[in-house]
């Protein structure tokens, strides 16, 4: 199982562990991932995803999983989340792009 958030694509980062004597040793900073069950109102079912706690806050801020996925860019999402986004767009209807008046 990869250590990558399915919604924000956050993954491990590398850095140094610095001792008191200033010796630098390689280490990994892992994202804070959790298995979360989201409720999709559009699809009418529960969806279980492995997401970071930061993504969980973003989902709550945007008004739920459906609203978050509709706003999210496709290149950041995992294949499972991308399938969910397409299913939600199909069920809800894709919002029409707004043209700016010049």
TrEMBL record:
The UniProt entry, under SUPFAM superfamilies, shows: L28p-like (SSF143800)
Which Pfam families does the entry link to?
Ribosomal_L28
The entry's keywords = Ribonucleoprotein, Ribosomal protein
Q: Where is this region: Disordered?
A: 1-21
* Family membership noted in the UniProt record: Belongs to the bacterial ribosomal protein bL28 family.
Concerning PANTHER family, the annotation shows: 39S RIBOSOMAL PROTEIN L28, MITOCHONDRIAL, LARGE RIBOSOMAL SUBUNIT PROTEIN BL28M
Quote the protein name from its UniProt record.
Large ribosomal subunit protein bL28
Q: Which organism is it from?
A: Bradyrhizobium brasilense
Which gene does this sequence derive from? rpmB
